[in-house]
Amino acid sequence: MKPRLILVWHEAGNVLYHDRFRELAQVFDLTVVGPRIFAGVDYAAGAQQEADFDLKLFAAYATGHWLSYFSPAMLSYIRTNPPQILYVHEEPHSATAFLVARFKRSSVFALESSAINMRGNFSGRNPTERFVYSKVDVMFPKNSEVAAVLQARGANPAKISSPLGNGVSLQSFKPIETTLAREQLQSMFPDAAKAFSGAMLVGFAGRIWRPKGLETLAQAARKAEVRLLLCGPVTDPDIASLVQELGGVLLPALNKAQLPVFYSALDLFVLPSEPTPNWREQFGRVCAEAVFCGTPAIGSNVGGIPSVVGDEAVFEPADICGLSAKIETLKSSAARADLLAEQREHIDSNFSWSSIANRVRSDTIRYL
Question: pTM (2 decimals)?
């Protein structure tokens, strides 16, 4: 019989993450709970009836931020339906993590964290955070840097598991033959044709935002004499304009069905993130998505990116020459094929949602 698990997350209703829940449901009797409305998005309208897991969305308050939201109705459900494993995908200093910890009872209490700084910790004197640490049985950090931050915040290192990373669905991200992918992408977005010039095509998917390192990427692409294609919502219009001035072709944010076409149209994917005092790239899921779509990926030496792409596929952040040189080494199709084969095997073994679900199971049932 599968152990019963309740997963708590502020984006429980976001269908983009339901591939993960479906895999967890293969090894757990799974119920996923969260707020019906979060950050202004009403997830109830788009949430479909799931055959593989039970999804319950509740009315909540202070839903503008993951730190503050809470739901009395959700807490009441947890209290009256105690699971064997209570899995909280929230930060330890959040209101929901504290409130859920109070209703832990006999459940195994697991917490997944992406903490990257000491904000809200008050030099270890945050009483609600300390209470969470006293109740938690196992913590899953997103990467090794997060594990160090959790320890600095006061978590017991004996309770911190090895990094869990993030995952990608093999069902949602599959390769499309390159020529066909480019034809499909051009039919959806005619401007994409500007990047199909015969030169090697390098791409990026994500927020068009200064910390993503896109100015560095555009400069390096020009230096290496390759074409650059990007997609994503624009947060910093000046960065979008600069990238286009340097020759990059910018598409809007793509949906889940369009992204495999975009990834498959590329020769190489690049995630050039540059850290700030309050932000670091936690995992780099887009790199894994690209690899599953048949495109090798490289990325900056930041956060969890090296754990995804491998040490040989990283460059230092904001290093235009280093990135350009890395692109040069991958101009041959044979070199890209070798890198892709290594990355595919590594990511499939460690970062598919199936492998992560099995990790969660093995690291939690020991406490039952």
Answer: 0.76
